[in-house]
Amino acid sequence: MQAHAKSRARLGWWLMTYLLLAGCSLQADDSQAEALPAVITEPSAASTLELERTIATLLQMQKVTLAAGAFTQTPNLTLARLEHKDANGVLIMGRDYESPRIVQLLIKDGQCLLADEQGKQSPPLTHTRCRPAK
């Protein structure tokens, strides 16, 4: 009778462990699946400023300048550094071999956020309104 109780307890322990692990993996998959590419629905000066500051922080750059219509047609934005030119338009420092950076606008749990090409995400944006991209 004691062996049966031990066997039953062991089975219960394995069942609890399995359910706990299955629940954790499902929860992790849900959070990954919710972030969708997005486009801006209500562009404004405040949202553009917020995007510029957030992208600069995300990419560790001093300053980023965006057009007012950035992210309104497509969820992806390719950023390249400005070339340094003299008054005649000739490059001062020669060629720039740095690759352009790509940033994506996402929507997750109804909130807009940005992600870089490595998948690093920004905190939710407060002044930017977006919807899933088509």
Radius of gyration, CA atoms, in whole angstroms: 24 Å
Give the number of domains: 2
**Class of secondary structure makeup:** alpha+beta
Overall morphology:
elongated
Quote the distance from N terminus to C terminus. 63 Å
Summarize the structure.
The chain is an alpha+beta fold. The protein folds into two domains: 32 residues; 98 residues, no CATH class. It has two helices and five strands, in the order H-E-H-E-E-E-E.
Structure write-up:
By secondary structure, the chain is an alpha+beta fold. The chain folds into 2 domains: 1-32; 35-132, no CATH class. It contains 2 helices and 5 strands; from the N terminus they run H-E-H-E-E-E-E. It has helices at 2-34, 45-58; strands spanning 36-40, 76-79, 101-108, 111-116, 130-132. Strand 3 (101-108) and strand 4 form a beta hairpin.
